[in-house]
Amino acid sequence: MSIASHSYHWMKTGFRPSKSRLSRWSALAGQIIKRGESLKKLTDDRLERYSLELRWRAKSGEPLKKILPEAYALVRESAWRTLKMAHFPVQLMGGMALFEGGIAEMQTGEGKTLTAVLPAYLRALMGKGCHVVTVNDYLAKRDSELMGPVFNKLGLSVGCITSDMEDDDRRIAYGLDITYGTANEMGFDFLRDRIRIGASAPGQLEQAISNHKSSGKEPLVQRGNYFALIDEADSVLIDEARTPLIIGLIQPNDAASVNLFRWSNRATHQLESEVDYVYEPKKRSAYLTDNGCRKVLLMPKPSLLDSIDTERIYKQVEQSLVARFGFLKDRDYVVVNDEVVIVDESTGRMMEGRKWQDGLHQSIEAQEHVPITAATGQAARITVQSFFQNYTHLAGMTGTAALAEKEIRKTYKVSVTSIPTHRPCIREGSQPRIFKTLQDKRLAVVEEIERLREKRCSILVGTPSVEASEELGDLLAMKAIPHQILNAKYHEQEAEIVKKAGEPSRVTIATNMAGRGTDILLKDTVRENGGLHVIATEMHTSARIDRQLIGRAARQGDPGHYQFFLSLEDELLRCLELNQLENLIRSAKADDRGELSSGWISFFRKTQDFLEKLHRKQRKDMLKQEKFRIEMFHKMGLDPYLEWTE
Questions:
Q1: For 501-512, what is each residue's pLDDT tens digit?
Q2: Are strands 458-462 and 507-510 parallel, antiparallel or unpaired?
Q3: Where on this chain does ATP bind (predicted)?
Q4: Which listed residue, of 313, 358, 600, 645, carries a Cα 20 to 30 Å from 530's Cα?
């Protein structure tokens, strides 16, 4: 697609400055490439000295905007010398969008990792630290090791934060010019530093930090929040924004609490739906009716529960109902070594160290008959929105920002600009196929896989959960069809599985892990046979997640194809009332293979749209609540991120 057609698209959607920005960036990209020709004559030593000169000019007060053409030309030359990769014009344009403090929408396969080096280098010249944020430890480590030599050749140092690091190592990594890491790790380090400083009045933070440094106490880990560049920005800024970062105060379980969690789980099986309790799937919440409260009160209980007040018992039974009906094993969580580990819906990865609050996590542990972990209070808390609003400069890149443009612009005060692709996208899609039952759909998916394998294509099958990926894998195994499964249980083999996913007739079944930060390289024979074919076995709760999966096909001008296979028993529709869903399935008219008419797709889209609006409202409400609390703490002269109470 040309720059002009991209501009027209964005002007239609209300983003007026797009055309002039893209034209300006395109012209400047040409100048940078031309400037880079003279750098080829320089020795490595001279190239590094040139970089040090730019750093001196930046620290002396010369505007970074003025230095940008020289800086980007230097980075492009360094990337060629170290990686044999030179930035394309559209990558240079993406780098300009990121420097100017916006979200660059760059399609999957357009080289966002290499693009990020440009603004990271330029901002790092100030010597105040630059944080490159990824969605998991694996990508943070991979990108820092891959791009580190580009920075090193220009005299800049690179570090990486991972979940298994000690504070001293973290301190060293943050002290380097560029630091890679996840939003979780950086957010928790921010909170731990606030705890080290202690509560201080707003406006007096700098003085509190200074006092802390001179006090001889344990030094802070981070040195400030100057510039954050977020990869997969919509995942971090939108999808993860409904879950605040909380540092807990361990509250050791007493025998009564453990008994309460286990008894409440058993009690839910004695309660009758709509008589004793009401479960609301759309809100993932449950409440006891008057009849239910009476029944719970009269149920036989262990004597240890005599010390617990009735209101707490009611609340815990309600949480156990939510755990039972709202959270599914191998979809929302997995059990590893007798431990319940949350699975992130948007990425399909395990969220180590994260716990659901208010006894919900312990309710699920009781349900799974694993050891009950200690409940947590709150020592410090911050939402993802508030954390990134602390940065002086913020930028991000993703392939799917446009669908959340309004929310991003309103929440983070940054613009979204679509960057043209390096080569025209030739991705093709087929009409969705919709079935009455899950089993009919899966049988059709297996048939389609067999057909595509005969064509010697490579096939990526996207599933919404660990459970779904393994059940489909069992069907393929029954047919003796070779395949690989990539989900939260096999995250350690991710790189090897993705590496082979582009081979002829290769079948890879994956949760959303395959949609974030990975690159499936196709063999030449696969390109000749139609490229990578993506089979999406469900629609997710966000159209952006669907687009991430579809975007695996047809990257960088390669051929590719996608198709959705849906059913009325899909997880997306579990937000509907049970009676409504049962009536829907009963009334649906299917053919002898269980397939419905394509017109049903509008029903799925409406459901997805409803969930997107619901989650958007939840994020908005949480941000509104946090703003109110911050104002309240400010009035009291306290640090707004410490000692939160519910």
A1: 999 999 999 887
A2: parallel
A3: 91, 109-113, 519
A4: 600
| DSSP bridge pairs for 247 | 380
Question: Which residues does residue 334 pair with via DSSP β-bridges, in sequence order?
Answer: 341
For residue 588, what pLDDT is reported?
A: 92
CB atoms within 10 A of CB 357: 15
Residue 395: CB atoms within 10 A of its CB come to 24
- The pLDDT of residue 578 is 78
CA angle 32, 34, 36 (to 5 degrees): 70
Where is the binding site, in residues?
91, 109-113, 519
End-to-end CA separation in angstroms for the chain = 50
Taking the C-alpha atoms of residue 292 and residue 289, their distance in angstroms, rounded to an integer, is 5
* 437: nearest Cα among 600, 563, 596: 596
Q: Which long-range contacts (CB under 8 A, 24 or more apart) does 197-205 make?
A: 197/639, 198/639, 198/642, 199/638, 199/639, 199/642, 199/643, 200/638, 200/639, 201/637, 201/638, 201/639, 202/633, 202/634, 202/637, 202/639, 202/640, 205/639
Q: Would you place residue 7 in the very low, low, confident or very high pLDDT band (cuts 50, 70, 90)?
A: very low
pLDDT digits 0-9 by tens, 527-573: 999 999 999 999 998 888 898 888 888 888 899 999 999 999 998 99
Give the range with max mean pLDDT: 52-61, 353-362, 458-467, 620-629.
52-61
Binding site for ATP: what residues are annotated? 91, 109-113, 519
User: Which residue is associated with the tokens 């180590």?
Assistant: 352
CA 409 to chain centre: 18
